[in-house]
């Protein structure tokens, strides 16, 4: 297992560059329920999210930096060996082909959740999956981590990328509500895994409906993208029209 090696200086630099990348890639990043990160500052958070795309870990890093939490994230060992800087961002590895390594990663994750400032991100599907594929299928690691913790708030988090009337997609992040889970009360890993699957499915369905029906209630702008070609064209037309009418 490759442990995280958080570097505050590196994280500050990467946060600035990461925001630049997100602004270039997306028209906007929207979020809802983000107050879960600050509602109980003395409780660690386990954020379990669906995994619809390559950008998910960078969005997770953006969120924890913006909300002031100490972020950690479990990732595939092959990925962390290829992109070693992820460890400086709070990433640690798991090798699912090695049962002992999985056990070490679960223990390491639960130890991180002993600190109240922690926000640990998990993508329990274990791979990139289209956001509308049902049923959700989780690996059992998330439930095992929760069983080993004293107490933490588990937050179902839906991520969605959607094209609307702009040439670049928009990102939607929907958090919560959080659920306090005490490890001593977890007796059935399968039952807890099914419960987590159901909660995230509900969150993902609610986000899909809100996005498709253009219902912005509760969402706020987390990051505005760079002006698109469409934005620039509209600005030029407005200036030309203004000159003609003036």
UniProtKB/TrEMBL annotation:
One of its GO terms (molecular function) is acyltransferase activity. Keywords: Acyltransferase, Transferase. Pfam families: Acyltransferase (PF01553). Coiled coil: none annotated. This is 1-acyl-sn-glycerol-3-phosphate acyltransferase. It comes from Chloracidobacterium thermophilum (strain B). Residues 45-162 form the Phospholipid/glycerol acyltransferase domain.
């Amino acid at each position: 297992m490759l442990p995280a090696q958080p570097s505050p200086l590196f994280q500050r630099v990467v946060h600035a560059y990461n925001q630049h990348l997100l602004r270039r890639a997306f028209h906007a990043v929207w979020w809802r329920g983000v107050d879960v990160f600050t509602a109980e500052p003395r409780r660690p958070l386990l954020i379990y999210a669906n995994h619809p795309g390559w950008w998910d870990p960078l969005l997770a890093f953006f969120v924890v930096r913006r909300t002031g939490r100490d972020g950690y994230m479990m990732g595939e060992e092959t990925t962390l060996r290829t992109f070693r800087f992820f460890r400086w961002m709070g990433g640690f590895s798991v090798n699912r082909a090695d049962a002992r390594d999985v056990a070490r990663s679960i223990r390491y994750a639960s130890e991180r959740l002993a600190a109240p400032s922690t926000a640990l991100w998990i993508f329990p599907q274990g791979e990139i999956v289209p956001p509308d594929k049902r049923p959700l299928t989780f690996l059992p690691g998330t439930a095992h981590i929760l069983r080993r913790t004293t107490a933490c708030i588990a937050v179902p988090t839906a991520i969605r990328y959607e094209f609307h009337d702009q040439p670049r997609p928009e990102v939607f992040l929907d958090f919560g509500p959080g659920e306090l889970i005490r490890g001593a009360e977890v007796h059935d890993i399968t039952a807890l895994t099914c419960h987590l699957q159901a909660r995230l499915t509900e969150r993902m369905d609610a986000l899909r409906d809100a996005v498709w029906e253009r219902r912005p209630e509760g969402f706020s702008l987390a990051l505005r993208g760079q002006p698109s070609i469409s934005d620039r064209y509209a600005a030029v037309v407005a200036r030309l029209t203004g000159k003609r009418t003036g």
